[in-house]
Amino acid sequence: MHFPKKQILCLKKMKKFFKKLKTKIFNRDFILQAIRYGTVGVVGITTNLLIFSFLTYVLKVWYMISGPIAGFISMTQNFILHKKFTFKGYSNFRIMSLSGATRYGKFFILSLINAPAFSSLLYFQVEILNFPKVVAQLFASLIIGFFSFLISRKFIFL
């Protein structure tokens, strides 16, 4: 089989691109950071649920007030844990500084953007693709979490 020069050149460029992608993404640091990012996410969800439950059921705070309070506290905790654990050794800013406040603002905006993106993705999977709700919840969490990790890694913590 004989390929035209344009196709061969295109295939060579694709091979080079995937080789570069492999060395940039599938390296040890990237994978470990992704695992730590997910771990912090699980800790954040746990904290959120514990605070929400305490406020709602013990202190009898209206759930529509408890939710945002729990969300804000767990988001702040996640920011600190990502700085100290997920991106340890890569982030050279102090939390209590102008740079830290700016990065916290970016993290807050990312969290605000994630909520409707997550809901839209969940809705699309359940209503359009007919995925089971729990499966859709898992996939939406993984997808939004992965993109949040990439954005956090590139624009917030490094």
**Separation, N- and C-terminal Cα atoms:** 48 Å
Computed structural class: mainly alpha
Rg of Cα set: 20 Å
Shape: globular
Count, helices: 5
What is the mean pLDDT? 89
Major sheet: none
Helix content: over 70%
Roughly what fraction of the amino acids lie in strands? under 5%
What is the tally of beta strands?
A: 0
Poorly predicted runs of 5 or more residues: none
For the record, the count of structural domains works out to 1
* Helix and strand run: HHHHH
Q: Which properties best describe this structure?
A:
158 residues; mainly alpha; 5 helices; 83% helix; globular
Topology of helices and strands:
Layout lengths: L4 H21 L2 H31 L4 H24 L11 H31 L4 H24 L2
Helix pairs in contact: 2-3, 4-5
Kindly describe this structure:
The longest helix has 31 residues, at 28-58. The chain is built from five helices and no strands. It has one domain (28-156). It is mainly α and 158 residues long. The radius of gyration is 20 Å and the shape is globular. Helix 4 (98-128) packs antiparallel against helix 5 (133-156). It has helices at 5-25, 28-58, 63-86, 98-128, 133-156.
Summarize the structure.
The chain is an all-alpha fold and 158 residues long. It is 83% helix and 0% strand. Helix 2 (28-58) packs antiparallel against helix 3 and helix 4 (98-128) runs antiparallel to helix 5 (133-156).
